[in-house]
């Protein structure tokens, strides 16, 4: 399987209500910005768990988010916050099919030393506009998350499902943060510019369409997933944007450089997939991209038997031209297991330095993996970074049948449906969190494995589900359908 870098120009489509503004950089802040997902500023990442199918106040699929706080011993499910649209200070009201918690992102938006949480709510109705969507900002503080405000869809006529994907970072390289959101409709990718404050107006923004190129995005699916990192080593992150090819439901993936005013003038086609993660696997200063495509070739020509993950090494033009993309399946030498139809290897990907050697390591979910005769129980595989790139040396795999992992493998658990690698203990090693959104017939659950210098350990592994963190188990909450990740 080979890929080529394609640069293309698209017609510029700017939303009239999102005209770019010239902004000055704000004065120096009193506190250093917090790392993403460190909501209480204690130097440890906290885990945000989305349950977009949760019932809230009797409203089915209104959606909720549980935040489990980090500690010196890892995630502590006894220290959590439940956030939904009936929580005091959170924008909106819990309504049927809002799907609050469908997408999650984090950054210290107001630069006060506490990370803030962004929650995508693509099913939000605005007046008579069904599924208009919105993104809620929930503010961090020393005491945790408290209060919020709304990022609304300013293109009501052209867009729907605003917030089905969300990311945050200085995407324009101007020193101010932006929030990037995905939606369906004419302007699928939107940027809202800082400075972000608890009151007053935001800085402005712009929006554009990726529907007119050689691999055009479908406006009906829109942008379904976003990740970001400094792939070109410019000192600010670029966006990895996922959608479906127009006229099909096949994956299409693109790198977007937000520093270009009309960002859709210059795009880089990446290997097609449905999810991605960004991190520096070979520690060369350029972030690398892991793209997951869980589908079979019969469903998506870019897929593979049992699913695949492709490593796209970063470089000055968005790709290291001296290195071919690395395609990994469960038939790759050294990868545990075997590629079997329906494994969904690549259904989730996360990058983080698990063992503390400064090379980003990769966690891959295979939510369709079967164990014996039990179908769709799921698994997670961990591969390690090195100066030579990703290696299968020392690769490990985890399931609910692995010794020390709580619970038991059951049909349709979908363990590995989402993964996260964040430092929850403050030891500068990324700990592994794994979601199984199908656990207990759609309740969902999350597992937490602490990191060690040799990789994740099942010693002391914990798990928690919706009822342990305040989420109703009425209906199918799908706890863990979204996880906060770097």
Protein topology:
Elements: E1 7-8, E2 47-51, E3 64-69, E4 76-83, E5 103-107, E6 116-121, E7 134-138, E8 148-152, E9 159-169, E10 178-185, E11 189-193, E12 204-208, E13 225-229, E14 238-244, E15 251-256, E16 267-270, E17 275-279, E18 288-293, E19 308-312, E20 326-328, E21 345-352, E22 361-366, E23 379-384, E24 391-398, E25 418-422, E26 431-436, H1 439-442, E27 445-449, E28 462-464, E29 482-483
Antiparallel strand pairs: 1-16, 2-3, 2-29, 3-4, 5-6, 6-7, 7-8, 9-10, 10-11, 11-12, 13-14, 14-15, 15-16, 17-18, 18-19, 19-20, 21-22, 22-23, 23-24, 25-26, 26-27, 27-28
Q: What does it look like?
A:
Helix content is 1%, strand content 33%. It has 486 residues and is mainly β. It has a five-stranded antiparallel sheet with strand order 1-16-15-14-13, with no helix packed on it. A hairpin with an 8-residue loop joins β9 and β10. It is globular, with a radius of gyration of 20 Å.
Oligomer: single chain
Helical amount? under 10%
The total count of strands amounts to 29
Beta fraction: 25-35%
Instruction: Give the class from helix and strand content and strand pairing.
Output: mainly beta
Radius of gyration, Cα only, in angstroms? 20 Å
* Amino- and carboxy-terminal Cα gap: 28 Å
């Amino acid at each position: 399987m080979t890929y080529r870098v394609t640069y293309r120009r698209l017609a510029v489509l700017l939303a009239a209500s999102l005209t770019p503004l010239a902004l000055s950089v704000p004065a120096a802040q009193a506190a250093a910005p917090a790392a993403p997902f460190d909501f209480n500023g204690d130097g440890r990442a906290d885990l945000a768990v989305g349950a977009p199918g949760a019932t809230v106040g009797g409203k089915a699929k209104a959606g909720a988010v549980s935040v489990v706080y980090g500690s010196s011993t890892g995630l502590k499910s006894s220290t959590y916050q439940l956030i939904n649209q009936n929580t005091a200070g959170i924008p909106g009201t819990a309504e049927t099919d809002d799907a609050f918690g469908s997408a999650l992102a984090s950054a210290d938006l107001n630069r006060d030393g506490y990370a803030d949480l962004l929650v995508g709510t693509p099913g939000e109705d605005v007046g008579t506009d069904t599924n208009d969507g919105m993104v809620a900002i929930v503010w961090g503080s020393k005491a945790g998350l408290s209060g919020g405000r709304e990022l609304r869809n300013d293109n009501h006529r052209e867009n729907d499902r605003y917030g089905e994907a969300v990311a945050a970072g200085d995407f324009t390289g101007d020193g101010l943060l932006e929030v990037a959101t995905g939606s369906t409709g004419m302007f699928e990718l939107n940027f809202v510019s800082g400075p972000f404050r608890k009151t007053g107006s935001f800085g402005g923004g712009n929006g554009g369409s990726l529907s007119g190129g050689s691999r055009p995005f479908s406006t009906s699916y829109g942008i379904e997933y976003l990740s970001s990192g400094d792939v070109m080593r410019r000192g600010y992150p670029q966006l990895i944007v996922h959608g479906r090819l127009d006229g099909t439901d096949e994956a299409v993936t693109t790198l977007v450089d937000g520093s270009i005013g009309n960002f859709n003038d210059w795009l880089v086609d990446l290997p097609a997939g449905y999810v991605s993660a960004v991190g520096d696997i070979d520690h060369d200063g350029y972030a690398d991209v892991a793209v997951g495509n869980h589908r079979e070739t019969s469903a998506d020509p870019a897929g593979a038997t049992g699913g695949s993950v492709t490593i796209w090494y970063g470089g000055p033009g968005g790709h290291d031209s001296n290195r071919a993309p690395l395609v990994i399946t469960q038939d790759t030498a050294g990868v545990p297991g075997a590629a079997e139809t329906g494994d969904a290897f690549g259904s989730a990907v996360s990058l983080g330095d698990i063992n503390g050697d400064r090379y980003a390591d990769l966690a891959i979910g295979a939510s369709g993996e079967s164990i014996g005769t039990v179908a769709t129980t799921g698994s997670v595989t961990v591969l390690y970074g090195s100066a030579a790139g990703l290696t299968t040396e020392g690769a490990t795999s985890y399931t609910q049948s692995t010794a020390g992992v709580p619970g038991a493998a059951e049909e349709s658990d979908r363990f590995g449906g989402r993964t996260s690698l964040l430092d929850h203990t403050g030891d500068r090693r990324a700990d592994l969190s794994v979601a199984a959104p199908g656990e207990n017939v759609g309740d969902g659950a999350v597992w937490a494995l602490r990191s060690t210098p040799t990789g994740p350990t099942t010693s002391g592994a914990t798990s928690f589900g919706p009822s342990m963190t305040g989420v109703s188990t009425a209906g199918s909450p799908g706890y863990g359908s979204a996880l906060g990740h770097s």
